[in-house]
Design goal:
about 260 residues; alpha/beta; Rossmann fold; 2 domains; 5-stranded parallel sheet
């Protein structure tokens, strides 16, 4: 700052002090601003709010984790039992026109078919033929007597003296539960049947029943689900057995897929 020497000494001193005061005020304000911002130029107050928000989120997550832990601890058995029970759909046994044995797991399902037929629940048995697995044609060239799932089924029926003439099976092949339901639907309508019994595994019964109900919707055909109790699956203790746990997890994966893909 340039001060005119011609001014009185008192005026010069006053101007100098006034200049110095303004300079110090400017310096103070600059330091204050610097103290209120971090190295990124973000005001400290905003940064503190973010810290408080993050801390609150962590607290809520911790609280939620603890709550879930206690719920699973105290209600573990009822929840696991409900998971197992949801997969099973079983109706009261009653007479029908046809027993339908879904393909797969031949032993447990075939034995349930034998029981249902011997009780006189239906005069005919339907069993679909599964699609040939990869390499099957080559295998049968080398091993001509290799049995298919349908061959094993008929072998079991023969062992329990079930007449061959009551076993009905079209030449069409199926690869999943939906294919089977559609094939049975066509077969039942062609024969004029009005009711059928669906026999499958316990863990498969819910998905099978939902699939058949969707395919037969509006046709007036009564569908009775009688799953096989030869499958050693108990909804009250399935988690204690590795095989049952595997069956449950796999079935829930398929059930979710069917609900999304086929809207059952």
């Amino acid at each position: 700052m340039i001060i005119n020497d011609n001014l009185p000494a008192g005026w010069q001193a006053g101007l100098w002090l006034n200049y110095k005061g303004r300079f110090h005020i400017m310096e103070y304000n600059k330091e204050t601003v610097q103290e209120k911002t971090n190295e990124l130029g973000i005001p400290e107050k905003l940064d503190k709010r973010k810290k408080v928000t993050k801390l609150s989120i962590y607290k809520w997550l911790l609280f939620l984790f603890i709550a879930i832990y206690f719920v699973l601890t105290f209600y573990r058995i009822p929840l696991l039992t409900a998971l197992g029970g949801y997969l099973i759909v079983e109706h009261k046994p009653e007479k029908a026109n046809l027993i339908v044995c879904l393909a797969g797991k031949n032993v447990e399902r075939s034995l349930a078919v034998v029981d249902a037929y011997r009780k006189g629940l239906a005069p005919y048995i339907f069993m679909a033929k599964k699609s040939k697995p990869d390499g099957f044609d080559y295998l049968t060239k080398r091993v001509r007597s290799y049995p298919t799932d349908f061959d094993l089924f008929t072998l079991i029926m023969e062992g329990f003296q079930i007449p061959e003439k009551v076993i009905l099976s079209p030449d069409d092949r199926v690869s999943n539960t939906l294919d089977e339901a559609r094939l049975v639907h066509k077969f039942v309508l062609d024969r004029g049947f009005k009711s059928l019994i669906v026999i499958t595994s316990l863990t498969h019964s819910h998905r099978a029943w939902l699939t058949f109900k969707k395919v037969f919707k509006g046709d007036g055909i009564k569908i009775i689900s009688l799953p096989s109790h030869y499958q050693l699956f108990n909804p009250k203790d399935w988690w204690k057995k590795r095989k049952c746990t595997k069956d449950l997890i796999l079935e829930y994966q398929k059930l979710i897929y069917y609900k999304i893909a086929y809207l059952i």
